[in-house]
UniProtKB/TrEMBL annotation:
<dbReference type="GO" id="GO:0051539">
    <property type="term" value="F:4 iron, 4 sulfur cluster binding"/>
</dbReference>
<dbReference type="InterPro" id="IPR010723">
    <property type="entry name" value="HemN_C"/>
</dbReference>
<comment type="function">
    <text>May be a heme chaperone, appears to bind heme. Homologous bacterial proteins do not have oxygen-independent coproporphyrinogen-III oxidase activity. Binds 1 [4Fe-4S] cluster. The cluster is coordinated with 3 cysteines and an exchangeable S-adenosyl-L-methionine.</text>
</comment>
<dbReference type="Pfam" id="PF06969">
    <property type="entry name" value="HemN_C"/>
</dbReference>
<keyword id="KW-0809">Transit peptide</keyword>
<dbReference type="GO" id="GO:0005739">
    <property type="term" value="C:mitochondrion"/>
</dbReference>
<dbReference type="Pfam" id="PF04055">
    <property type="entry name" value="Radical_SAM"/>
</dbReference>
<keyword id="KW-0479">Metal-binding</keyword>
<keyword id="KW-0143">Chaperone</keyword>
<dbReference type="InterPro" id="IPR034505">
    <property type="entry name" value="Coproporphyrinogen-III_oxidase"/>
</dbReference>
<dbReference type="InterPro" id="IPR058240">
    <property type="entry name" value="rSAM_sf"/>
</dbReference>
<keyword id="KW-0949">S-adenosyl-L-methionine</keyword>
<keyword id="KW-0349">Heme</keyword>
<dbReference type="InterPro" id="IPR013785">
    <property type="entry name" value="Aldolase_TIM"/>
</dbReference>
<keyword id="KW-0496">Mitochondrion</keyword>
<dbReference type="InterPro" id="IPR007197">
    <property type="entry name" value="rSAM"/>
</dbReference>
<dbReference type="GO" id="GO:0004109">
    <property type="term" value="F:coproporphyrinogen oxidase activity"/>
</dbReference>
Length: 455
């Protein structure tokens, strides 16, 4: 999958250590604590083949011991839900890899484990990513019976030459068949993924592909600019001169063409990469951009949650062990395969709340900001003279009673807006320096205090 304009990592030097979202929970006298909620994200790391552009944590193996993987996914889901003390599940998202290669039995077992460890409301969004070649009608019906109620189909393109370039195993005809089957079983709850900015792709080819996709799709489209990731076959072809890289102007034009076409077709752009109509916004997608808890389960999965079961008060950025066999050994040994844990500072949390929240059309609301920064408001940071004020005056940002958000024009340029906003946040957040203490036996010099910086 590619990355759309404005994705994480776009903030330059000022992005700093913004590697994940953590939430500090200051005590609030007289206010009952909220019920802990979370969104589990089980990962199936296996694929039939590696696409030419993909650098995700995925594995192509001759055979998979599905019973062993299933048992470990179930155990880790239970362990992490217990550690987080999540009481209610907001959504579940099966990603990968290619989770449609897992059997419906595995999907059902993981959902049963989730429902046994926390409340899984009837009708809660349960999404499965599917590749067209493993998304036949009978298989999709099995997933529906297992508890899946939303499909995300990775068609990427409806052009056979483009699909071959991307190294996809399916054809355009198979993509159409998979989407039609998904829409029959999950009407109104089928999403498609599209890639643009392929090497050699023309403006006209993209417009034709987009028109074909609009004639096929349901009510949700995820649109990604292809990223040439280091170490992939496609990146090597471009760097070696075998394929032409698209210009930045062409990429911007393709993105704007898609935005205009989708809006004209009745879609709302609710996030940089995501478009929905008839109110079919993805609950799980929004959990990332709105700084809600999510619990990564499986090899290489990422999570952000408070370890209430261990007395934690701050949300951690967590990454599970990448390699499936090593991950399974760790789960079998200690119940989970968490390889890396980072407790995020208040500033790191706010940096990501800002960077991710601004990806949405609702932006960062005052209420959400206040949960992370109860003593320094959005207005105090971004309403004062500085970069944010200038961006508002230029028509790229809005700060009002709803919060801080990009305008329609600004959303397309989020990459270029973020560095200045993050730097302004860092300057305003900087705490005053502590007074210097004189050495023992020495008199204070010049008033005895170290210089202070304004908060």
């Amino acid at each position: 999958m590619g990355h759309a304009p404005g994705g994480p990592g776009a903030g330059g030097d000022c992005w700093g250590a913004c590697v994940g979202l953590g939430l500090c929970l200051p005590p609030q006298s007289g206010v009952p604590p909220p019920v802990p909620t979370g969104a589990p994200c089980p990962q199936w790391p296996y694929c039939r083949k590696r696409c030419s552009y993909c650098n995700f944590n995925k594995y192509v193996v001759p055979a998979v011991d599905e019973a062993a993987v299933r048992a470990c996914l179930v155990r880790e889901a239970r362990t992490l839900l217990r550690l987080s003390q999540v009481q209610s599940v907001t959504s579940v998202f099966f990603g990968g890899g290619t989770p449609s290669l897992a059997s419906p039995r595995t999907i059902a077992a993981v959902l049963e484990a989730v429902a046994g460890a926390a409340h899984l409301p009837a009708g809660a969004e349960v999404t499965l990513e599917a590749n067209p070649r493993s998304a036949g009608t009978a298989r999709l019906a099995g997933f529906k019976a297992a508890g899946v109620n939303r499909l995300s189909v990775g068609i990427q393109s409806l052009d056979d030459a483009e699909l071959r370039l991307l190294g996809r195993e399916h054809t355009a005809a198979e993509a159409r068949g998979a989407v039609e089957a998904a829409r029959g079983l999950f009407p109104g709850r089928t999403s498609i993924d599209l890639l643009f900015g392929l090497p050699g792709q023309s403006r006209g080819a993209w417009a034709r592909g987009l028109e074909a996709a609009l004639g096929l799709c349901d009510h949700h489209v995820s649109l990604y600019q292809l990223t040439l990731e280091r170490g992939t076959a496609l990146a090597a072809q471009v760097s070696g001169g075998a394929l032409p890289a698209p210009s930045q102007d062409l990429l911007a034009d393709m993105y704007q063409t898609a935005r205009a076409a989708l809006v004209a077709a009745g879609f709302r752009q609710y996030e940089v990469s995501n478009f929905a109509r008839k109110g079919t916004l993805s609950t799980h997608n929004l959990s990332y951009w709105r700084a809600e808890q999510y619990i990564g389960v499986g090899p290489g999965a990422h999570g952000r949650f408070v370890l209430r079961g261990e007395g934690g008060r701050s949300r951690e950025a967590r990454v599970q062990t990448l390699e499936p066999d090593a991950w399974m050994r760790e789960v079998q040994s200690r119940g989970h395969g968490t390889r890396r844990r980072v407790v995020l500072s208040p500033l790191e949390q706010l940096e990501e709340v800002l960077a991710l929240g601004l990806r949405t059309d609702e932006g960062v609301t005052h209420e959400r900001w206040g949960r992370f920064s109860p003593h320094l408001s959005l207005e105090a940071i971004f309403g004062a003279p500085g970069e944010a004020k200038a961006l508002q005056q230029q028509g790229w940002l809005v700060l009002d009673g709803g919060g801080l958000r990009c305008t329609w024009r600004g959303l397309a340029l989020l990459d270029s807006l973020l560095p200045a906003l993050l730097c302004q946040l860092q300057r305003r957040w900087a705490p005053p320096a502590a007074p210097a203490l004189p050495a023992q036996g020495a008199a204070p010099a010049g008033g005895g205090g170290a210089p202070r910086r304004s908060p």
